[in-house]
Amino acid sequence: MTARAPCRARAACAWVACAAAACGVDADRGRHPAPIVGGAADADHPSVVALVARRAACASAERLVCSGTLVGPRAVLTAAHCLNELRAQELEAIVGDDVAAPAAVLAVWDAFVHPDYDPLAEPDASYDAALVVLEAAPDVPVAPLPSGPIAELAAGTPVRVVGFGRLAPESPPGQRLTGEAIITAAGPVAVYTGDTGVPCGGDSGGAVFADTAEGERLVGVMKASGPDCADFGVFVRVDAMVGDFVAPRLADADRVASSGRPPFDPDASYCAAACTADADCPVGMLCLPERDGRHCGYRDGRVADYGSACGPDGGPECVPVGAGSERSCRQRVPCGAGGGGFCAAVPGGGAGCAWGPAAAVALLAAAHRRRARRRRCDR
Q1: Containing domain of residue 47, as a range?
Q2: Per-residue pLDDT tens over the stretch 225-262
Q3: Is 370 in contact with 340 (CB distance < 8 Å)?
Q4: 49 domain residue, yes or no
Q5: Among the ranges 93-97, 309-313, 358-362, which has the highest mean pLDDT value?
Q6: More confident residue, 41 or 277
Q7: Global pTM value
Q8: Residue 317 and residue 354 in one domain
């Protein structure tokens, strides 16, 4: 019985992860973002931006995560679940009509998540909202916010949904899209819309606009849709949180004067330099545990050093470094490179890697242990 406990624990964790991702209700579909169903290119809402994660290589397409709306000079309102798997400073905001041809790319310096956000709650019962702070103010107007409750948010009212997405899982991220949806039910926290203009994938965190007595206003943050991005959409009401969350956090955003991180240094040896927390690393990097201690590195590329500047045709080791306005491309140099063979983290390895036959044996032994654990779990 005790030997099986770790397996049960992992199964429980898998269930929680499923619940957090809103299985059965498409809350983010972040792996394969899709566009607003029935959407068309949007040129009227430049305040709606794309939130992307670091690409694996400079030749790769941007990795769309979510959408968001500029509601302050440097503040973007988005969905809190967009930060479930990545830390805020691993994201960048793309300004413009098309993520493949950005007008500007800005680093994210900080984020404030709504205190009543609960990833396990029903879609209409949680304030799925966050405010992310950018490094600088983009040259676009901010979206107008409601000053108070919006009486127009009732069944039968048309709204405009705006967000970024992919046309297909295999295609690159596309343009900013818009579509019309009709409200079918409105609650105190969230609003449901019908089967047109359904948000999907990379549209999470995107904007919902409506005509009100004050004019066009940002009335919602896109949260979820029905299974397979069909049947209905769900958005969180902005008027329900503008006074006690959005306005105070906008004031906090104005006080974020820096990222609190050191700038990326292409001449630094990140393989050798130690860190104790993410704050010791440049924006976008994490303080990652290695066998010889903790070092700054990117989530997908782990710890490495970086050599000469390169372009999109520089091959798979030409990778993005820095973030936002400091973004550039450099050749990735694995820790301990030059000896050939496998790279495995071993105690006393200095840069965290060892090369040659001993490293290969270490990797094979680790793989054998993982297979043995899986067999025990399958019993």
Answers
A1: 24-254
A2: 777 777 878 899 999 999 999 999 999 999 998 899 99
A3: no
A4: yes
A5: 93-97
A6: 277
A7: 0.78
A8: yes
List pLDDT tens digits, range 153-178.
Answer: 999 999 999 999 755 444 555 789 88
191 and 306 inside one domain? no
- CATH number at 177 reads 2.40.10.10
Answer yes or no: do 207 and 345 share one domain: no
